[in-house]
Fold these 2 entries.
Entry 1:
Amino acid sequence: MLSPERNGLLTDVMNGAPAARLMRSYWLPVAVTAQLDSRNPMPVQVFGEKLALFRNLAGKLGLIDDQCAHRGTSLSAGAEHFKTAGRIDARGLRCAYHGWLYDATGQCLDQPGEPAQFEFCDKIKLKAYPVLDRHGFIWAYLGNAEPPALAPVDAIAREDGVRINTIGTWPCNYFQVLENMVDPVHVSILHQDTDFDQEKFAAIPTLRVEPTQWGLKTIAGRPGYEREVEFLFPSAVRLALPIMDPPIALVFWAVPVSETQTLSFHSWFLPLPTGMAPAEREEKVARMKKFIYELGDGDPIHHQSKVNAQDKFACYSQGQVAKRSHEHLGRTDAGVSLLRRLYFAAIEDVEAGRDPRGVVRGTTPEIVRFDNVT
Ligand code: FES
Ligand SMILES: [Fe+2]
């Protein structure tokens, strides 16, 4: 049970709230690379902030404030419906209204309507964030300090197999999504009628939890085996998906759009040992796709599986922002309790100017491998 104040500390992620400052200390995915085409900017909203993502004609990525500094027209919204939304230029993004041009640092470079002697673009600069295009995602560092390294977790960085990256939206606060990530007990009940290996998951597990360098680990014990799931700060889970052998390695991030909406990014990695027969490879890839797009209509970017729909339902029906003042936590919620404790501590770390759990600096570390997917 949490008081409204403590709950608010976890759930308020708008702009510069303490939990937002914590999450902004890490690189976060903000788009699947395949979503961004070369002709149009893409609207991105994170932590309540409206931003315009674009790639200039030279290929450089930019993520800048969506509101033009002239009279505030959106630089990206409407791009799907109106050809007049912000235009990609050789040097950056041009506002659709009067053509002011911004580069990837947010610097204004051109004001077509102003007579040359009155131009003042050198005084105009929009907010801009560093962006990276890696492993099929576009990552942003939305903090104020020196960006840390991007931790290369196996499922997103390995190349010895097939990877599919997807995006989705959950109509609820991000912390409900995070609590679902550290709750392995629900799998035996909520996901009873899915492609998961039902024999393996029928028994309700015992649960152990441990803090780790990256966040925390849940260990679910069922007859004959244990299953570990890693939570990675600030908002990802890394697990082995038990729908085939070898299992798929999955990393799933939750990124707040606002207090009541959350983006989900999934990186699905199927290891394909060298020497596997082509027919077997094809069959496994087809099975992975069938699982990811089960409820979909052939759209290759949006994740639409039954398991995901069940998890979403469990989370959003708690309320857009779960109150947590009337809950009754038990032993099966050990992961939830530990996650909250670690989150409060990490928020304090950031407030005190310390790097929170899981921030990596210096040389990029080796691929971070977990031993439950070979
Ligand atoms: S509002 Fe953008 S150029 Fe005028
Ligand atoms: Fe689930």
Note: DSSP finds nine helices and 18 strands in the chain.
Entry 2:
Amino acid sequence: MKRDGTCMSLWQNNIEDYISKTQELPSGIADVMIIGGGITGLSTALQLQKAGKKCVLVEAYNIGFGTTGGTTAHINTVLDTPYTDLIRDFGQEGAQRVADATKDAIALIKNNIEEHQINCDFKIVKGFLFAQNESQSKVLGEILEASRSVGIDANHVPAIPAPIPFEKAIHISHQAQFHPIKYLYGLAEAFEKEGGLLLQHTRVERVEEKGTIHVKTSRGPMEARYAIYATHVPLGVNVLHFRAAPYRSYAIAVKLKSNVYHDAVVYDMYDPYHYYRTQDIDGESYLVAGGNDHKTAHEANAQFCFQNLESHVRKYFDVDSVKFKWSSQYFESIDGLPYIGHLPGNPKSVYVATGYGGNGMVFSHVAALELSEKILNNRSKYKDLFDPSRIKLAGLSNFIKEQADVVAKFLGKWFYVKDLEALADLAPGDAKVVKYEGHSIALHKDDMGNFHAVSPTCTHVHCSVAWNNAERSWDCPCHGARYSFDGKVLTGPASKDLEPIKLKHE
Ligand SMILES: Cc1cc2nc3c(=O)[nH]c(=O)nc-3n(C[C@H](O)[C@H](O)[C@H](O)COP(=O)(O)OP(=O)(O)OC[C@H]3O[C@@H](n4cnc5c(N)ncnc54)[C@H](O)[C@@H]3O)c2cc1C
């Protein structure tokens, strides 16, 4: 299956693209249009369809194309934002509500698996968090107390199931893991069986309210009463783009010489943290490890992140070979909680779910529960704790208006390959933004030696893209829009491709 980068994730191996039953655009008005076929879109669509709503899910590529195809699929109750911070920022009651939402989400995942008989290697496992110095040990003790205060079953332990030296460690019961793409495909089948319409290879380009919601797609117009952006980050220009920062994160799946794999999810306490878990696929076990996160396009050589991660893992584990390595993108909210609810600045019938950080398996299901409650009963299940409008930003509307106006600069202009080639001095597979005759040009030389040139100006709000040599994409440092080597949109919030630049050979 295809995903939004050139590296292959563990989950894609031997898996074909999902074939949906729906091929034609539906006529008439749907109750809910869900935009995006990742774990948020599919879990929410299934929930609403089962409750009797007529749903259409629209995916720009194939389902699992986005971050869900590049996740590592731990299902956690102890979140990236520790309960110490949640209690400080949202009070004991708010933190308790987060813990309850997390429990509800895991119950929903289990229920989906049981009810629809989804064979996705779901497993309850032990969780371990370990400290490697005095200050980490102090923080770990505080996290333990805070987690217990919201009902999480955790305790100090003298040993961890990974060969890594540590000072203090805690065990957290009832964590889980699964194969995210098998789960996603199971949700898709269940959604279609319940009568939902699933359209792949259909990009939503614009959403407007004209009494109902009118949606312009790459394959024609559609209409619905409600729309949900399950696109990981909403399209267009919105206050949330300034309140959800894009990060890249790296993962590898390795074989161990000893063939002994631990059966738990294990985390260290660095920032960014490393994690280690086991996944069995087709009779083979793999140690999955991840970390080395950085803000999107803020790392000049993304390949170094893979090298650093691999040497980190080799330091502690008897690695035989690295079988898969991949990177992907997540969005971090400003206060550590996701944005789930009405999309600010849009009609009341337009919703969003984003800003999950590294806890999207659980928060996607919190979104499924919260958005269903909003659409079905006009109520918030979690007392608007996750409401996207909880964060205000003064004076943004003028900025958005100015920045959204994208102007084509290269119209009709040609450039000579030989001039750019001399200037850029690129090895095959490499790319660079070069300055030539007053223009900035994003130039890529593919493995066959062919050149591809596009404007480096992101079509979202005009920031300049940078080359990601790990996934061979042009990434925008501002709001995380990503484009293929030849400028096609891979990841929102942009919905227009980079402007092509015409190259001449003679
Ligand atoms: C390396 C890495 C490891 C992670 N590990 C974990 C983990 O262990 N546990 C955990 O809980 N979370 C983890 N996360 C986070 C989690 O994977 C994500 O939060 C989650 O997958 C997001 O799912 P989503 O459905 O919201 O977005 P996506 O999976 O990105 O889906 C969005 C979909 O929308 C589609 N789309 C976009 N624009 C349009 C458009 N205009 N029209 C139609 N469709 C469109 C995209 O093609 C895409 O398929 C990890 C993240 C990373 C980067």
Note: The first helix runs from residue 39 to 50.
